[in-house]
UniProtKB/TrEMBL annotation:
<protein>
    <submittedName>
        <fullName>PhnA domain-containing protein</fullName>
    </submittedName>
</protein>
<dbReference type="Pfam" id="PF03831">
    <property type="entry name" value="YjdM"/>
</dbReference>
<dbReference type="InterPro" id="IPR013991">
    <property type="entry name" value="PhnaA_N_proteobac"/>
</dbReference>
<feature type="domain" description="PhnA protein N-terminal proteobacterial">
    <location>
        <begin position="6"/>
        <end position="52"/>
    </location>
</feature>
<dbReference type="InterPro" id="IPR013988">
    <property type="entry name" value="YjdM_C"/>
</dbReference>
């Protein structure tokens, strides 16, 4: 039996993420690049295009992860986890991520394939921070080289991103410019 036929049998002709019964094509879960039963999943056109380009994600479509995240199939788990990560600005997606359990090697696989995103600043909840966001500082932070402290709860408006993905910069309400570590912020 060909790989694709095996995959179609596994998924019972339903999209492995949203269960749509439509034309399905194999999607290889990065960083793997060959269609194998262990590394590929069968996806409908909607899921596939949005998995390939997360910028086009239709948030409501991905409510389907509520079911598919419990799949026993490793590459489905990996893809579901990554899609939830992309959606982690949504509280329901965060709840699902918290419930989700991945075996250690599967968790590693899931993270490796998201390397692109390691270069983006993320707040304490892993939410990507973008230029112009407002953030709240979540703990008192000493300012290097001074005896000043940025107080917990300080709001920094309209942040900018620099070359270092761990840092964001912006101004407080008092007009003071500062750099803070992204993971000590929470997006407002
Ligand atoms: Zn689908």
């Amino acid at each position: 039996m060909s790989t694709e036929a095996t995959l179609l049998e596994r998924c019972e002709n339903k999209c492995e993420l949203c269960s749509a019964q439509t034309t399905l094509t194999p999607y290889v879960v990065a960083p793997h690049s060959n269609v194998t039963v262990d590394h590929a999943i069968m996806l409908c056109e909607t899921c596939k295009s949005q998995v390939e380009d997360p910028a086009t994600m239709d948030v409501n479509h991905w409510r389907c992860l509520n079911d598919s995240m419990w799949s026993q199939v490793a590459p489905v788990q990996v893809t579901a986890w990554r899609q939830l990560k992309h959606l982690s600005a949504e509280s329901w997606a965060q709840d699902l991520l918290e419930m989700m359990y991945l075996e250690e090697d599967i968790a590693k696989w899931a993270e490796i394939g998201m390397d692109d995103d390691a270069e983006k600043p993320r707040d304490v909840n892993g939410v990507e921070l973008k230029k112009g966001d407002d953030v709240t500082v979540i703990k008192d932070l000493p300012v290097k080289g001074t005896n000043q402290v940025i107080k917990q709860g300080t709001v920094i408006r309209g942040i900018s991103l620099g070359d270092d993905p761990r840092l964001v910069s912006g101004k407080t309400n008092g007009g003071q410019s500062m750099y803070v570590i992204a993971e000590f912020c929470r997006k407002k």
